[in-house]
Structure formats: structure tokens, C-alpha cells
Amino acid sequence: MRRAIAEKTALSFATIPHFYLRVEADVTSLMELRSQLAPAIEREAGVKLTITDFLLCAMARALVEFPFANSIWQGDALVELPTVDLGVVVGVENGLLIPILRSVDKLGLVELGRRRSELVVAARAGKLTAADTQGGAMSLSNLGNSPVDEFAAVIAPTQSSMLSVGRAAPRPFVVAGQLAIRTTLKLCLAADHRAMDGGPAGQMLGRIVHFLEHPATLLAPGGQ
Q1: Is the pTM of the predicted complex or chain greater than 0.90?
Q2: What is the pLDDT of residues 34-56, one digit of tens each?
Q3: N or C: where does the chain have the smaller number of CB atoms within 10 Å of the terminal CB?
Q4: Pick the CATH number of 2-218 from 3.30.559.10, 2.60.40.1120, 3.90.1150.190, 3.30.365.10
Q5: Alpha carbons 43 and 31: distance in angstroms, whole number
């Protein structure tokens, strides 16, 4: 496991020209919405809805709007992928794995949560197949269960970006020109400069923030 991680991370930094964009999102409304929905969803559907599910949904929506970010640099050309598949970093004994969720933009939050949970369980049980970890242009690394506020992860080889997210915590935040205490997330996008430039990548990241700050838009397919 450590040898594989060493090889992949070294390959990533050696071959992918990383650049990083950082932003802070006010997720007070998202946390409130999750608290309202989660008990009924877990009771009726058997799915524990997490912040990771909202993040993945927001990422998928953004990739639909900005297809350049659903592309990978392959050989000497940019290749747009036909489906919106997202990786989610899963911590396992002595390392990590990145299983891929397929066609995330077509999934509602509940089904997304169900499939994400199944992949996490399979990863930690050592039951992933090789196909389960291949594909996609973007992955999510969420350290929300740790004391980490912000970090910058390495892009998974063959992909073109990685979104790193720290813990949700109450922090000073300006709302309508006034300083307030809000629950925020700090996001860091690592991007492959061969596949995208800073301006468009910043617009895409801003759209992710928009969805997180307006979480009701994530409840219906194609919400704005």
C-alpha cells in the first residue's frame, strides 16, 4: 500500500503541473438543511446523508456547467470525458484508496449517499476491483472528521483536479457587510495547468461554493 502511494504521488508531482486555488464557503444553511433531512432519510431509506454527499453533488453540478474541468490531459491532447465520474478519497489501514462514483450528475442526494457508502465499505473491506478505482477527472479529499482546517492534496494520476476540504467550524465571516460567526468550510482546489487555467478554474470553484451556500439547489436535478 505505501509503495503504491509513493509511486502514484511521486508520479503526480513529477508529471502534473499543479496550481492551487483556495476559498471559504459559508455552509451554515447546508448544515441546517442536513440536520433537518438526515434523520428522516436514514429512517426511511437507510442512508446516512453526509457533508461529503453534498460536496460531491456540488462538484458534479459544476462539472456539468464547466466541461473543461471534466477533461484530462492524455498524451498530447485534452480529452473531455463522456460521463461525470468523481473519485472520493477513502482512508484504509496503512493508506488510502480512491474509488470512483459513476454518473454522479444523474444521481439524487439519497442515491448518491447510498452509492458513496457502498464504495467506502467495499474499500475498507478490501473488496474494490481495479475498475472501481479507474476513471474520472476530479476527486474529493475530505478531512472533515479531523481537526484540520485546510490542506492541499495531490492530484490523482490520470485525473486533472482534486478538491480538498477541511472541517466545518464556526468562524468569523462577513455577511452583507457585517462581521458574523458562521459555519464555514475551507476548500482548496489542486488543478492540472495542462487541462485548465486559473480564471476558468476559479469560476468553476466559485460555482461549487454557490451550490454549497444554496444547498436547496442540490435537492432537485439540474437546480440553479
Answers
A1: yes
A2: 999 999 999 999 999 999 999 99
A3: C
A4: 3.30.559.10
A5: 19
